[in-house]
Every structure is written in C-alpha cells, then in structure tokens.
Specification:
Layout lengths: L2 H23 L10 H26 L5 H19 L6 E4 L5 E7 L14 E4 L1 H6 L5 E4 L9 E2 L8 E8 L2 E10 L26 E2 L9 E4 L5
Parallel strand pairs: 1-4, 2-3
Antiparallel strand pairs: 2-7, 5-7, 6-7, 6-9, 7-8
Helix pairs in contact: 1-2, 1-3, 2-3
C-alpha cells in the first residue's frame, strides 16, 4: 500500500473514530460541575497533542512514510483505546413485581453478575462491571414488564449513584444505585437510602478497607475516571 493510500485511509478512519467518540461522550457521566462531554473533549485534545511527538519518533523508524500518515495511524490507535475505556455494558435487571425503593448493585466477588434482585432490591456485580457501568439499564418486573419509566437516576446527567456503606466487620460495602418509584411519582427522587450492612449477603459482598472519606451511608455520583 502506498503512503498516499495509507494516509487517506488512516485519516478517514481517525476522523470516523473521532466523530463516534464525540457522540459517545454525550452519554458519559462527568464530575463535579463538568460534563462528561467536556472532560472527554479535553482528553481528545490531549491525545491529538500527544500523538505529535509519537509520530515524530515513528518517523525515525518508518522513514518512507510521511509524518501525516504516521500521525493519523497514531490517533487511530489512541482513539480505539479511548473507545474501549468508554465501553459500558447495558445491564438487564429483574426486580420483584411491584418493587419500589432503592436498587443497589453491590461490588462482589461473583464471576457472573447476579442481576435478578432480591426483595430488598439488591443484586451483585463483579469488579469489571462495577468499574465500567454508567449506561442506563433495562429494568423489568419478574413478569417481563419493562419499568424503565419508573426508574430515577442520581441526577439528570448521571444515572448511577456510587455509594459506600460502613461498616461490616470493619469493612465497607460499595454499590451502584438508583431508585424505582410509583407511577404517581415518576421522575421524583425519594432518597430512600438503605443500610446495606443489614441486608447484603456477606458471602457475596466484597468488603474493602474504608478510607478517610467513607461515612455511614454516603451517596455520591459515580464519576468516569478512565
């Protein structure tokens, strides 16, 4: 493949990846007062700048290729990795018929996520799922009826809340949460916090050493930090 053909194809691929990244970032939660889109765009700018010295170094190895070709290839690799870090599974949750209140997915040592929730609205997810989940889930009653319209997230820009509950045997429980409300309170958050230390299955929950920021029943937005 000629350098010109490689430059055009890699440039078009890089542009396509950039556009799809921007669309994806619109659904990524942010942090503090900054949106996920704004933070993501800052990372993209950093990638574009960082690829300049990378392409310059590659030029010493691949002397027959132009700087623009090597720069485009560098951005393609970086954008692909960024796409990977932004991946979030869309979980399918099953709750008891008529359940209302807080839903908690507890960080667990399970291999396969337990997404059929118990009567307290508690399920268990492994570390990978815990760290990658920010997408709005699909939620169903056990009879198959979808109830996403009854689900209320942490705030308008971040669906999942990230909570720490302390203490169980001197250790904290971490969980992701949202609320299911009745039909007459659609969109209204009731702040129905639960003491998970009294409700979780001790054999399934991963118990972590609390830090100085841990308080009993704290609840904060889950921020994307990849």
């Amino acid at each position: 493949m000629s350098d010109k053909t490689l430059k055009i194809s890699s440039g078009l691929l890089s542009l396509a990846l950039l556009v799809t990244l921007i669309f994806k970032l619109q659904n990524v939660p942010g942090g503090m007062i900054l949106s996920g889109l704004f933070l993501g765009l800052m990372i993209i700018v950093g990638i574009l700048l960082a690829c300049i010295p990378v392409a310059s170094l590659l030029k010493f190895v691949f002397k027959k290729n132009s700087f623009l070709t090597l720069y485009s290839i560098s951005t393609v690799v970086a954008f692909l990795y960024f796409h990977y870090t932004l991946y979030s599974p869309t979980l399918k949750l099953i709750v008891p018929i008529g359940y209302k209140g807080q839903v908690n997915l507890v960080l667990s040592n399970v291999t396969d996520n337990i997404l059929v929730l118990d009567t307290n609205g508690i399920g268990y997810i492994n570390e990978w799922t815990f760290n990658h989940t920010y997408s709005i889930p699909q939620v169903y009653y056990s009879n198959g009826i979808n109830i996403n319209n009854l689900c209320v997230g942490f705030n308008p820009s971040t669906f999942w809340g990230g909570g720490k509950t302390c203490c169980m045997s001197g250790r904290e429980i971490q969980s992701l949460s949202f609320e299911i409300v009745s039909k007459d309170k659609i969109g209204q958050k009731s702040y129905d916090n639960k003491d998970l230390t009294l409700l979780v299955n001790k054999k399934l929950a991963t118990l972590l050493k609390p830090d100085q920021y841990t308080k009993i029943q704290t609840d904060s937005a889950k921020v994307q930090t990849k």
